[in-house]
Amino acid sequence: MKKLAAILFFLVLNNSLLTGQSQDYPSEKIKLLSVSNPNKDSLLGQKYGGCWGWYQEDKQREYALIGGTNGTYFIDITNPSLPVVCDYVAGKYCNWREIKNFRNYCYVTTECGEGLKIIDMRYLPDSVHVVSTGTNVLYTSHTIWIDGNKLYCSSLRILPNANLRVGVFSLLNPEQPVFLHSTTSEFSFVGAHDLYSRHDTLYLSGGNNGIEVLKYDSINNKFNMLGTYSGYSLQGYNHSNFLTQNGKYLIFCDEIPAAQPIRIVDVSNLQNIQPASSFLPGPYTTPHNPYIIGNDWALISCYEDGLQIYEIKDPYNVKRAGFFDTYTLSGIDQGYYTGDYVGNYGAYPFLPSKTIITLDMNNGAFFLDASEAFGNIPPKKENDTTSACITAFTIPASQYVEVLAKAQSNGKIQLFSPEGQLIYSRNFSGAFSDKINTEMLPNGFYLLKVEGEDCRSVKKILITHK
Fold first, then answer.
1. Are residues 407 and 296 in the same domain?
2. pLDDT score at 283
């Protein structure tokens, strides 16, 4: 009976895998392979927060490790077009789950007093086994990073009322981490919202303190300060960062206030960190988490504006290479922002297959092919109808919606009511602009569809009358 129940459970989960695949998501040079949305406990609002990936070398399989508000999902994406939920580990309800791996062990923590879960993944795709759980190792940690055989934690609490800020654990025994040290011993003022570590050099995103760089001295079991970067123009709450492979440049995101630019700084001299460039996909975009592939590519999760990819070969002349918007209810492609914590949360672009895992807080895990954005395949042919037509339009609308489009062939523009009824249609030839009168239309979300021989776009727009 238990085996039958388990089979039925995963049939239900996997029936939800392709949800959204038929929906059109605004994108440029990134192809949607599939979507997995297995969290059925949270029907409305946020359902996910936190993702990672793992390559099972002995079986040559790839997995997405997805943090739901209700637990952790292990999804086989060896065939990224047909993902399969292999197993699930339940947890306390929490808005996010921080997930990393060391060898075949998955480490999961939250800020909801759940402690640290250690999950053995060696038996995948059959199952995972929880080898340790509870608060005996730690009580909460906002983020974690694994560097060699060490586990670094930010916003760490060993006990409910003991804030150790940044701490380090030994993973010599992966199933029984051993606490080594915390920054409170040397620096009572040093803390971190998030961190990136390489060879025990820690780049801390220290909130209102900006960037702080520490070195963990394992011989003397202490932290040393190497450098800081703060007081920069429009400084906000420094949220997260990532380092280039050559160690020369650091990219970071300030999350608060909204619409802070993404920044790259030169960290080749930690005593004199210098700005290189700053950029933003749109005037109201809020960047969340950055990731870097080698020295050439940066991927940024940007809440309502989805996943953005930038070419950073020249850190002083950054170019956008592509994007995929996982959240279609607001953002730059919809012409207005809610300012809420919705949309794209994080990504994992480091699998051997180059399949990109990216997580939307509301819509689930998206599996993407960004070969064209990375310049690995030729540009689209003229008869490829998957590129976006619309370049700008005015929303929310009360009197009209203005559409500016870049089609180079014949096509049609259509507007559909919230009930799916066609209420406006016109043909076009080549690039065009159009104003659709909305004065007599009821308030609500409408679907604007533009389709030509060389492009296609479908966008949700809000029509509202005061």
1. no
2. 86
Question: Do 64 and 51 touch, CB atoms closer than 8 A?
Answer: yes
Query: Both 81 and 122 in a single domain?
Result: yes
Task: Check which CATH number belongs to the domain holding 307 and give it.
Answer: 2.130.10
Q: Are 287 and 241 in contact (CB under 8 A)?
A: no
- Domain membership of residue 166 (yes or no) is no
**Residue entry with tokens 């759980």:** 133
3-class secondary structure, 377: coil
**How many residues are given for the chain?**
466
Sequence letter at residue 395? I
Number of domains the chain is built from: 2
3-state secondary structure 229-240: ECCCCCCCEEEE
DSSP 336: B
Pairing status of strand 201-205 against strand 150-157 = unpaired
Q: Is the CB of residue 52 less than 8 Å from the CB of residue 351?
A: no
* Domain membership of residue 456 as a residue range: 390-463
Task: Please report the sign of the dihedral spanned by the C-alpha atoms of residue 163, residue 167, residue 173, residue 175.
Answer: positive
Q: Tell me, what's the pLDDT at 364?
A: 97
- Which residues are within 8 A (CB) of 140 and not within 5 positions of it... i.e. 6 or more apart? 109, 110, 111, 112, 113, 114, 115, 155, 156, 157
Rounded to 5 degrees, what are φ and ψ at 295? -115, 5
Instruction: Report pLDDT digits (tens) over 201-236.
Output: 999 999 999 999 999 999 999 999 999 999 999 999
* 211: amino acid identity, one letter: I
Question: Do residues 377 and 369 touch, judged by C-beta distance below 8 A?
Answer: no
Per-residue confidence (pLDDT) for residue 20, from 0 to 100: 40
User: Please, how many CA atoms are within 13 Å of residue 130, restricted to the half-sphere of its CB?
Assistant: 14
In 10 A of CB 282, how many CB atoms?
Answer: 15
Say if residue 246 is in the same domain as residue 365. Answer: yes
**404 burial class (0-12, 13-18, 19+ CB within 10 angstroms)?**
middle
Residue 383 buriedness (CB in 10 A; 0-12 / 13-18 / 19+): exposed
CA 90 from centroid of its chain's CA atoms: 22
Strand ranges (DSSP E) for 312-353?
319-324, 344-348
User: Tell me, what amino acid is at 248?
Assistant: K
Whether residues 341 and 414 fall in one domain: no
How would you label 195-226 residue by residue, b for 16+ Cβ within 10 Å and e otherwise?
bbbeebbbbbbbbebbbbbbbbeeeeeebeee
* 326 plus 259 within the same structural domain: yes
Which residues of the chain fall short of a pLDDT of 70?
A: 1-23, 42-44, 377-398, 404-409, 418-420, 431-432, 445, 452-460, 466
Q: Are residues 263 and 119 in the same domain?
A: yes
